[in-house]
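Quick one: structure for this chain?
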Amino acid sequence: QHYKDDILPPWADHFGDKDTDTESCCSSDIGGFGVENDADSEDRDDISGHEEDSESSSDEDDGVPSEVFDNNLFRDEEQHDWEGSSNKRVEKRKARATITVFDTQSCTRLFRLRRPIKCRLFASPPVFHPTKSLVVWPLADGDVLFLDYLAKTYFTRRLQPSTPHTGHVCMKIHFSECGQFLHIATLEAQRKTPESKKDSETLPPIKPAVLVCTYRLSRGKTARSPPQQIHRMKLALGETTRLHVSKLPFTFTWTSKDLYFSCSGKSLQVYRIPLFSTTEEKAEDLQPVWTPKKPFFLPYSASNRAVHYFPPAVNKSGKEQLPARIIIGSGFTALKDIEPNEAEEEYGALLVKRVIEHSSRGGEFYPPAGCHVDEDTNLGGWVDSHARANILQDRGVGRLDPRIPVERFNPDDDCDLEPFIY
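Got it. Here's what it folds into:
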């Protein structure tokens, strides 16, 4: 997904439609998907207005109000009034999310869905179920799309955030190998103070966090029945003033029991988050979020590169076949960021020559690098990180609920005038 500007996604509402036709194609891909800016409505014949779960779809104007993206601020949850926007330019360039599923054997299009979106979600691709004709696609504002591309039906559910004044930055979907469980890891960003002035010189700090939820899928109606939440955990990531959403400094590695969440930095910062609860259904789960005990230093450039942590690979009998691995993705440093050594300071031409040899753009490329580590010897084992955050009880955090449309106040229909005689 590519956008012209990188911003944190504000709150917004979404509307959905359904596609019911197929057409021939020359593609050999399993599925095609993307987000496009649609300036007109010439493809409206591909869309119908029915949803399987009887959720209402809207044909109202879905233009993006200009104030949504001012100063990269979130819209408050309580502020539902979107009226008063007259930005013609934005209305003509409405962002639409499109997903298309193809059959690789018959080269036919099985399903196509196009939805207008009012805010943005980054690095959140759709995921196919391992055995069923189910695709789960995270949209924006917490909306998660469940579609059956063979039955040509779909429904949407809204993932409740963990705190007020919170926006979703990215959402990762993962199915268990058995296909009975769905895991969703959401990177959230909470504005620290609700009262943020648009004309302030400095942006208010944000508090990123990771909400990990596990859901049980229906065995008989996997693609039609909404999943049931059985586990949730939250990881607090401190506080920051900015977040580069086009190149997120976080990576996700899934296993059958845990999620390994890694952060870019000069030292290894990885968290092991359990995906299942160890207590009864209604009992409080007190599992910690784990982290390595010993520090493990990485190259200086790892602060601007993706850091992936892969745990030891084991066979079915539980015997370790491959040790843990740390993979650092490729990177690029501009010329002004390169610090010459003592020899190059005396002979500046050597530095310029070294940079030009690597890149004509005036910088230096770093190829991917990796190493094997022993979790006990090199990392000291896993200990409690004390970074698990509390989740408010009885607030529906992490639940996949139907989106309930908010009725706007109408002074003519919603007010009754009664004569008052003193």
